[in-house]
Amino acid sequence: MARRVMFRRPLALAFSFLAAWAVWTALSKGWAVLLLGFVAVLLAVVLAFPVGWLARLIPRALAAFLMATLTLGAAGGLVALVAPVVVEQGKELLAGLPDATAKAERWLRQAQRDRTVKQLTNGKDVAGLVKEKVPEAMEKAATSTLPMAGHLRSEERRERGRSACRS
């Protein structure tokens, strides 16, 4: 009776798994490079038409430089317009967080009196867990938001100082 060989080429199978593992590792570690490459290609495709149109009027290198500068300037302007609003909303969120936490805690305590909710939570004190985790979450939010807000405030003061000197 002859033995059946499950895989005819075990070495090829092993190398296939090794190659798949190598590709997976490269993609998982190099996702930032792939993303950057994708954005670069996307930007090149989007700017190809305006650069081609401007190249009829001025040299192509100057047209490409001008379009890149205008695009980066527009992106920077958009960030400059949006950032103060986002920081202000972040401050409002942090200011209203204690009230919202207290309201959520009251609701959770009231809901835990219900038998169905007790069954869903297995009798755990969800309100206590929320109350325990909220200060940690607020600290994380404050430590990441306030430095950005301080940086933007210092930029605003610097800009006001410059405009005051000009007048």
Draw up the topology in text:
Layout: H1 10-29, H2 31-55, H3 60-112, H4 115-120, H5 126-166
Helix pairs in contact: 2-3, 3-5
Question: What descriptive keywords fit this protein?
Answer:
single chain; 167 residues; mainly alpha; 5 helices; 87% helix; flat
Can you describe this structure?
- The protein has 167 residues and is mainly α.
- It has one domain.
- It contains 5 helices and no strands.
- Helix 2 crosses helix 3 (60-112) and helix 3 packs antiparallel against helix 5.
- The longest helix has 53 residues, at 60-112.
- The radius of gyration is 29 Å and the shape is flat.
- The termini are far apart.
Please outline the major beta sheet: none
Provide the helix percentage: over 70%
Task: Give me the oligomer status.
Answer: single chain
Class from secondary-structure proportions = mainly alpha
Q: Could you say which overall geometry the principal axes of the C-alpha atoms support?
A: flat
How many whole angstroms does the radius of gyration measure?
Answer: 29 Å
Distance between the termini: 101 Å
